[in-house]
Design goal:
alpha+beta, 7-stranded antiparallel beta sheet, two-stranded antiparallel ribbon
Length: 233
């Protein structure tokens, strides 16, 4: 039985809201892109900088969706393709209740979604059969029109950005080695609580970092500053 790819809106508790949107035609392909941020730590006298892992970057999923309403005719009785495309376009619009675009889950197939089969120490980070996300961009291209200018065929190029709360990430990663001293290079937007969340799995444990590095004002972090992340017990 043919299974259609779907977009399901989620509430604040990440539970389904309303009826899922099924695509008119399954995409021919989709692309996942995941990277990490690496900083150069310069050590005088070395041939090249030391590579310091800073943080993972957000994973994205991109795909093209095809829509066509010409089966209903191309004359006066034609049905505009925007009746279908607007359902997906609205997923990037601001929700008046949350003041942000909705969180969604892209679902296609019952099993085998990329990232659902992680094993060993990565097994806690495997995703459910789908991609929890917000819609980052929608590019609409209309290619066929009725004699009156009504759009009848369209391609939507959609980019989805994976969405996880801090609690979800800490729970999935399950850090096991907070007792190893290492360094962190301060990047734009860094805070001590964010660094503590990455190092210890708990943003509330920022004080040991501040005390170890002699930081009096926790808000006074300088871009490029190298912090030692001390072990905690």
């Amino acid at each position: 039985m043919l299974q259609k790819a779907q977009f399901q809106r989620l509430d604040r508790n990440f539970q389904p809201v309303g009826k899922a949107l099924s695509v008119q035609y399954n995409p021919a392909e989709f692309t996942l892109n995941k990277g990490v941020q690496i900083a150069d730590v310069s050590i005088p006298g070395l041939d090249q900088p030391i590579q310091q892992f800073v943080r993972g970057q957000t994973e994205t999923l991109s795909l093209d969706l095809f829509f066509d309403t010409t089966e209903a005719g191309m004359g006066d009785d034609a049905s505009p393709v925007t009746v279908e495309t607007d359902k997906f376009y609205q997923l990037i619009k601001i929700d008046r209740k949350t003041h942000a675009p909705p969180v969604c889950r892209f679902i296609w197939g019952a099993t085998g979604f990329p990232g659902a089969n992680l094993t060993e120490q990565w097994s806690s980070q495997k995703r459910e059969n789908g991609f929890q996300c917000i819609v980052e961009s929608v590019r609409q291209r209309f290619t066929v029109f009725s004699p009156t200018g009504m759009p009848l065929r369209a391609i939507l190029s959609v980019t989805l950005r994976e969405y996880k709360t801090l609690e979800q990430q800490v729970d999935q990663i399950r850090f096991e080695s907070p007792d190893h001293t290492h360094e962190h290079v301060v990047e734009r937007g860094d805070t001590l609580s964010r660094i503590a969340a990455e190092a210890y799995g708990d943003p509330r444990k920022w004080r040991p970092i501040a005390e170890h590095n002699g930081i009096i004002d926790p808000l006074d972090l300088k871009l490029g500053m190298v912090l030692e992340i001390p072990p905690i017990r």
